[in-house]
Predict the structure.
Amino acid sequence: MPSARSTRWAVPSSPTPAATVNAMLDRIDEALTSQRQLLDDVRHELKTPITIVRGHLELLDATKPDDVRAVRDIAIDELDRMAELVTDIDALARVERQAVLAEPTDVADLTALVFSKMQAIPGHEWVLEETANAVAPLSPSRLTQAWLQLGDNAAKYSPPGSTIRVGSTAYAGTVEFWVADAGPGIPPGAEKRIFERFGRADTGRGIAGSGLGLPIVAAIARAHGGYVSLDSSSTGARFGIVVPTLDTGAAPPPPATGFDDAPTDPEPPRRAE
């Protein structure tokens, strides 16, 4: 009787238990490092308003009503700034932690809606320069949040009464939601810092803010499988949120310099059931 020959099947290699555990520990370590960095940043940002309030309270002359009113106003202003910081930290954490529920969205309708909201920001002339006719799988509420943040930044950094242009532009497989201002632009070398937590560009204008606006915009863009574009000069800056669509057209603008370290294969947005 001939001997039976065993058949050997190719079995895909799988990670060893040790490799799986090491990968899990690496992810945990990265998460803890990120949390520690956030806590350090928050501690640093809260230190200044706390010092300001404490210093004025220590020098307060309670017998002088004018002095009391002035210190009260300063304390309320600093508390408002701390409240804004906490709100922005919570917003950033939510965007980074929660998956985007995308739905087919008419870009033209969204553009008109967001532009009408931007017009409520005072002190500038708002112009809708372009509207893309496209449908994109996105979260209208999240995209609106990010786009309005770009509008708010433009209003802060542009001269009073200046024109701020807004639009949406369709490209090959993508659409860009953009805002262009007439401010001082982003200083050379600061393109990456402005996308970091509490990072601010030194424009010499003393603009107040939490320093989390653009990181929130960046997180929302990444959650949609997209990125933030930037075209800046001494006469203004043009920020855009580029997200995928199913339409065809010309090539989109490249990512901003600060997006060189963005994930190359972001998790695609989940479609709403």
